[in-house]
Design goal:
By secondary structure, this protein is α/β, with parallel strands linked by helices. The chain is built from six helices and seven strands.
Length: 205
């Protein structure tokens, strides 16, 4: 039995968000095949993610102690988010492409949960070793333009989140991108449908 965490970074409801639609197709198919697994969904726009302030950074690096009750509550909440992330076995990220990158709320979340000495650490020679080995991740990205086309704007959200996962020791990472939705509105429904079918196939692989 595995703990699966679906991390959603679109502010739109599932009925309007392509990244959520495709990710849900993957998750629905996965749950049919793995009925004993535990699924938890995190809508980052409905999640309390404290701002990582100077004081919090100083507490984390040991250069300052926490003497403020409000800061203490923020530290406690950040630890809760981090522990929840670390305790999962599998991850699904649904990400809209915003100006070639991920929404800021996902960046805030990643900084909160993929932390030094919790998700990764430095070795004596200065290299990074991940502490979350053996876990898996699926990344679903929805892009209005065709970011894979030659000479087009690229989407860096996928490479970025994958690099962060690999740095944490999560090397089994798959990715599904649905693109060109806004460029070709007359084909949008077909593009989404094809992506959802691919998601279902990936759930069984």
């Amino acid at each position: 039995m595995s703990n699966v965490l679906h991390i959603m970074s679109s502010p739109q409801p599932s009925s309007c968000s392509v990244s959520k639609k495709v990710a849900n197709a993957f998750i629905d198919a996965y749950c049919v095949l793995n009925p004993d697994d535990n699924l938890k969904e995190i809508d980052l726009y409905q999640t309390d993610i404290p701002f990582i302030s100077e004081i919090i950074v100083n507490v984390w690096n040991g250069s300052q102690t926490c003497e403020d009750d409000l800061v203490y509550q923020d530290l406690k909440r950040l630890d809760e988010l981090c522990d929840e992330f670390i305790s999962a076995d599998k991850y699904v990220f649904s990400i809209p492409n915003w100006n070639s990158f991920a929404p800021p709320v996902l960046v805030e979340y990643v900084l909160a949960v993929m932390r030094l000495n919790k998700a990764f650490k430095y070795t004596k020679d200065g290299s990074i070793t991940g502490l979350l080995k053996g876990k898996k991740a699926m990344i679903v990205i929805a892009s209005g333009y065709t970011c894979s086309a030659p000479n087009s704007f690229k989407c860096y959200a996928g490479p970025w989140i994958k690099q962060m996962l690999v740095s944490c020791g999560i090397n089994d990472v798959d990715e599904l991108i649905v693109e060109g939705i806004d460029e070709r509105p007359e084909q949008a429904s077909c593009l989404v449908e094809v992506a959802m079918k691919r998601a279902v196939d990936k759930a069984g692989s």
